[in-house]
Structures are given as structure tokens and as C-alpha cells.
Automatic annotation (TrEMBL):
<feature type="transmembrane region" description="Helical">
    <location>
        <begin position="42"/>
        <end position="64"/>
    </location>
</feature>
<feature type="domain" description="TadE-like">
    <location>
        <begin position="36"/>
        <end position="78"/>
    </location>
</feature>
<dbReference type="InterPro" id="IPR012495">
    <property type="entry name" value="TadE-like_dom"/>
</dbReference>
<keyword id="KW-0812">Transmembrane</keyword>
<feature type="region of interest" description="Disordered">
    <location>
        <begin position="1"/>
        <end position="33"/>
    </location>
</feature>
<keyword id="KW-1133">Transmembrane helix</keyword>
<dbReference type="Pfam" id="PF07811">
    <property type="entry name" value="TadE"/>
</dbReference>
<feature type="compositionally biased region" description="Low complexity">
    <location>
        <begin position="1"/>
        <end position="10"/>
    </location>
</feature>
<feature type="compositionally biased region" description="Basic residues">
    <location>
        <begin position="11"/>
        <end position="28"/>
    </location>
</feature>
<keyword id="KW-0472">Membrane</keyword>
<protein>
    <submittedName>
        <fullName>Pilus assembly protein</fullName>
    </submittedName>
</protein>
Length: 167
């Protein structure tokens, strides 16, 4: 009579050509150990991804604020260069401020506009602080536009200075 295994030994069963123990093992398969790992990885990566997206938006806003400031400075400088005399400074500042309000009203806060003259050139400078998307990041924007005063310059004589006391 064939000998039967003792009660303390587990019987071996062949399945698919591999001998396995009929008793349950406490070892888990790798797939069971990794269950939920993907969700934890995403939970850890989400704040980093959100910060990267906010940084991209912040730098886009700074770039746009610089473009608005430059456009306003150019508009003010155009006005300053074409006004022959009088209150060209006030008109240039008013034009640049109106341009900022028209193109990007809440993009630069507070807006300061300065105008000046150096020899035969007039300039307008627009300054402000760009909108903050990320609370701890502050970007100051300053753009200046300058150019020669547009006036009649005779061909005879020095021909470099404006006539009429503006230069």
C-alpha cells in the first residue's frame, strides 16, 4: 500500500507543470504589493505640476505687462516728439497713462509715467508692478521709449538743433 503523507506535510499538486504547495503562502505577488502606488505618486506630483503651470502663467503675465508698458511708452514718446512746445510733458504722460488703461488696465499696478528731454531727444518711461499669480513673486516692469524731437531743421547752418527754442 502506498504510503500516505503525514498530516504535517503539505501535499504537492502539479499545475501547469509546476509543483506547488497546496497550503497558502503568506508571500504576496508584486502586483498586490504595488496596488495604490500610482495614486500616491500622482498625489505627490500634483503640487509640483500645479506650481509649474502657475510659473508659466506668471511669466506670461510679466511678458505681457512688459509689452503693455513698452506700447504705452512708445505712444507717449510719439506725442512728446511731435508736440513742438507748450505742455508736451503733460500730454505725453496723459497719453501713456491712457494707453495703459486701454490695453491692460489691471495689468500694471501702480503705474507711474515720467517724461523728459535730453538735448534734441524726448523720452517717456512707464513703470509698474506686474500682476501676481504666485503670491511670493513680485516683478517690477520698466520700459522707456525715446526719439528725436520732430521739428524743422534747416539745410543751412548747423542743421542739428530745432529752431524755436525747443532744443
Amino acid at each position: 500500500m502506498p504510503s500516505e503523507p503525514s498530516s504535517g506535510n503539505a501535499r504537492r499538486v502539479r499545475r501547469g507543470g509546476v509543483a506547488r504547495s497546496s497550503g497558502r503562502s503568506r508571500r504576496t505577488r508584486p502586483a498586490e504589493r504595488d496596488r495604490g502606488a500610482s495614486a500616491i505618486e500622482w498625489a505627490m506630483l500634483t503640487p509640483i505640476l500645479i506650481l509649474i503651470i502657475l510659473l508659466v502663467v506668471q511669466f506670461a503675465m510679466v511678458f505681457f505687462a512688459r509689452q503693455v508698458a513698452l506700447a504705452a511708452a512708445q505712444a507717449g514718446a510719439r506725442t512728446a516728439r511731435t508736440e513742438p512746445g507748450g505742455d508736451w510733458n503733460g500730454l505725453a504722460v496723459e497719453r501713456a497713462t491712457a494707453n495703459v488703461d486701454q490695453v491692460g488696465k489691471n495689468l500694471l499696478n501702480p503705474v507711474t509715467v515720467q517724461a523728459g528731454q535730453e538735448g534734441d531727444e524726448r523720452w517717456v518711461e512707464v513703470r509698474g508692478t506686474a500682476v501676481r499669480v504666485i503670491p511670493f513673486m513680485t516683478f517690477h516692469v520698466a520700459q522707456r521709449s525715446r526719439g528725436p524731437i520732430e521739428c524743422f531743421r534747416p539745410d543751412v547752418g548747423s542743421g542739428t538743433a530745432c529752431q524755436g527754442g525747443t532744443g
